[in-house]
């Protein structure tokens, strides 16, 4: 511990603490713009400057990167500091478009909030913002370089956190901008559509493609039967958009809101998560007992699928062929459910509400996403943020809606289905059912705690009736190379493969902090959303996918058996190596 003084107050902090962190510890808010707790601080904006040698000292430092030192006397706010910060903001605004009303981040923009805090109504500098071309080539993400403030957050998260390197700094000074490398468009770049650039951008320079107008048009058509599904992670994040704490579970109010919006049938992706476990679990048992390609790697995350096909195509034989829950649900809606409901599949408009921007691309990733034979199995995917906007547009008081249930038979789910929304959840759900399939007994403790939490790579060993199964869970794309390299090294050298089962999620924390979730996600928010997910699991009548009676019903009435012929036609896919650049 070291002794410092902040605004005249003597405090102690751990050695290695930044001035910004020290101030936060005593509830002093130093303004920031380029800083984000997920990313390495690099002090590009200069708004967080403080004095480091007492009142009136000319010595100034940037709080986000400057470490506290013994007996440091820090002043975080005085008239001159406020004036300097205001000038920095005015300079940024002089190179920024003044079209807040049309901006997708209006009301959620950090630059806008700071300008309001500092009372900036007009600026002394001439506006020099130059017209630049929108990049709409990506199916999930829109890049508007005019709005870019060169904070570098998107570059940091894409390169250092996700290890994708789809965007970078180009040019210098006034001509500098953030764009895909080599003059490519975002659609031609190595982008995996995870949306973490959009989630970390403080302004409206990168954002998800807005598909809500298409949904509204279809819902207004009396000939169309609108069907919707909601992902596990949506239920623990949507309430944040309406003033609640992260992690508040409002599943039944979301069902009610979707019906008010105009959807005629409401299903739950948690159901198809249970179905995914039945397919993936059966696939794992088959590979394990028949000397198939081990380890089996999960395939629910489309950003990870895209990454694997581009960066690790040699791992394709290890990838589960099971489709994601979104796509399984889409296939069943236009086949099994359409038959039961007596509805023409060609009149069904199938919508998914996902925490993920990559899900937009997944809806038409390849021909396997049209397995029902009636166009795309999922016609369109919208994010949690897009659903929040739709709810506001129709004037719904979400939190006051009466609870409603999802429709049968593709609505009821188990606790295993809901934990898909967090890192380790797919693995935990799969282990619960795979253990049963192998031993014909229920797992004694359903809580697989070693795979929970925010460690980048988590490992565990489970005793499957005398057979030890080694598992690994990786989240945040930059962590997966560590796991894959271990596997490849073992295969190359002839050593024992270190794992039999591997789960990967592209985003830190898993789907709970996907690129389409409410803005402002931090580790504190992630942990609260996780707690909501596990609470939903604990409260479920059934906590294992193989216990879901409606899952049994769909196999008996329609699919036959897990991994059977019909299941493979509708619920499984294949993978193809893809080039990093498609220029």
What's the topology here?
Layout lengths: L1 E5 L2 E5 L5 H7 L23 E3 L8 E3 L9 E3 L4 H15 L16 H8 L23 E3 L9 H9 L5 E4 L6 E4 L15 H5 L5 E3 L3 H8 L5 E6 L20 H11 L3 E4 H21 L6 E2 L4 H10 L13 H17 L6 E7 L3 H5 L17 E4 H10 L21 H4 L6 H15 L17 E8 L2 E9 L4 H14 L7 E5 L17 H17 L9 H11 L5 H7 L12
Parallel strand pairs: 1-5, 10-11, 10-13, 12-17, 13-14, 16-17
Antiparallel strand pairs: 1-2, 3-4, 6-9, 7-8, 15-16
Descriptors for this entry?
Rossmann fold; 13% strand; Ubiquitin-like (UB roll); 4-stranded mixed beta sheet; 17 strands; 33% helix; 583 residues; alpha/beta; 18 helices; Alpha-Beta Plaits; 4-stranded parallel beta sheet; 3 domains
Structure characterization notes:
The chain contains 18 helices and 17 strands. The chain is an alpha/beta fold. The chain folds into 3 domains: 76 residues, Ubiquitin-like (UB roll) (Roll); 116 residues, Alpha-Beta Plaits; 359 residues, 3-Layer(aba) Sandwich (Rossmann fold). The strands form 6 sheets. Strands 11-10-13-14 form a 4-stranded parallel β-sheet, sandwiched between helices. It has a 4-stranded mixed β-sheet with strand order 12-17-16-15, with helices on both faces. The longest helix has 21 residues. The termini are far apart. 51% of the residues are buried.
């Amino acid at each position: 511990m070291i002794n410092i003084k902040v605004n005249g107050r003597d405090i102690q902090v751990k050695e290695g603490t930044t001035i910004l962190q020290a101030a936060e510890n005593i509830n002093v808010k130093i303004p920031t713009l380029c800083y984000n707790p997920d990313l390495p601080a690099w002090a590009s904006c200069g708004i967080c400057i403080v004095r480091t040698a007492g009142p009136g000292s000319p010595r100034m430092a940037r709080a986000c990167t400057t470490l506290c030192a013994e007996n440091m006397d820090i002043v975080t706010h005085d008239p001159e500091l406020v004036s300097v910060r205001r000038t920095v903001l005015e300079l940024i605004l002089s190179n920024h478009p003044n079209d807040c009303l049309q901006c997708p981040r209006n009301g959620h923009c950090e630059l806008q909030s700071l300008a309001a805090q500092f009372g900036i109504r007009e600026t002394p500098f001439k506006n020099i913002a130059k017209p630049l071309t929108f990049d709409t080539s990506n199916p999930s993400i829109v890049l508007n370089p005019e709005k870019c403030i060169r904070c570098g957050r998107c570059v940091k998260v894409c390169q250092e956190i996700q290890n994708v390197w789809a965007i970078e700094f180009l040019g210098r000074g006034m001509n500098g901008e953030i764009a895909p490398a080599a003059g490519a468009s975002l659609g031609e770049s190595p982008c995996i559509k995870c949306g973490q650039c959009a989630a970390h951008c403080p302004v409206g320079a990168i954002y998800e493609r807005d598909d809500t107008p298409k949904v509204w048009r279809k819902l207004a058509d009396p000939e169309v039967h609108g069907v919707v599904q909601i992902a596990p992670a949506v239920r623990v994040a949507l309430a944040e958009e309406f003033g609640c704490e992260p992690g508040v579970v409002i599943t039944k109010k979301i069902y009610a809101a979707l019906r008010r919006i105009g959807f005629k049938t409401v299903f739950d992706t948690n159901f198809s998560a249970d179905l995914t476990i039945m397919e993936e679990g059966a696939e794992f048992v088959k590979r394990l007992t028949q000397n198939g390609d081990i380890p089996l790697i999960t395939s629910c995350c489309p950003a990870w699928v895209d990454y694997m096909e581009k960066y690790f195509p040699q791992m394709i034989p290890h990838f589960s062929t099971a489709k994601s829950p979104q796509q399984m649900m889409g296939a069943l809606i236009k086949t099994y459910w359409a038959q039961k409901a007596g509805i023409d599949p060609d009149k069904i408009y199938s919508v998914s509400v996902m925490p993920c921007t990559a899900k937009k691309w997944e809806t038409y990733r390849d021909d396997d996403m049209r397995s029902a034979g009636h166009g795309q199995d999922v016609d369109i995917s919208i994010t949690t943020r897009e659903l929040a906007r739709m709810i506001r547009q129709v004037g719904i008081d979400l939190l006051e809606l009466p609870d409603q249930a999802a429709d049968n038979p593709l609505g009821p789910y188990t606790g295993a289905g809901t934990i898909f929304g967090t890192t380790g959840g797919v693995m935990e759900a799969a282990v619960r059912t795979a253990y049963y399939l192998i031993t014909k007994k229920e797992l004694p403790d359903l809580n697989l705690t070693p795979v929970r939490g925010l460690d980048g790579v988590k490992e565990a060993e489970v005793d499957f009736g005398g057979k030890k199964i080694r598992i690994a869970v990786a989240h945040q794309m930059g962590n997966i190379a560590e796991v894959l390299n271990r596997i490849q090294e073992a295969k190359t050298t002839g050593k024992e493969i270190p794992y039999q089962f591997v789960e990967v999620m592209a985003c830190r924390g898993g789907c709970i902090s996907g690129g389409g979730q409410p803005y402002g996600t931090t580790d504190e928010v992630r942990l609260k959303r996780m707690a909501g997910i596990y609470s939903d699991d604990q409260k479920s009548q059934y906590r294992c996918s193989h216990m879901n009676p409606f899952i049994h019903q769909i196999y008996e009435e329609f699919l036959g058996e897990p991994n059977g012929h019909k299941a493979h036609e509708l619920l499984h896919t294949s993978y193809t190596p893809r080039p990093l650049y498609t220029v």
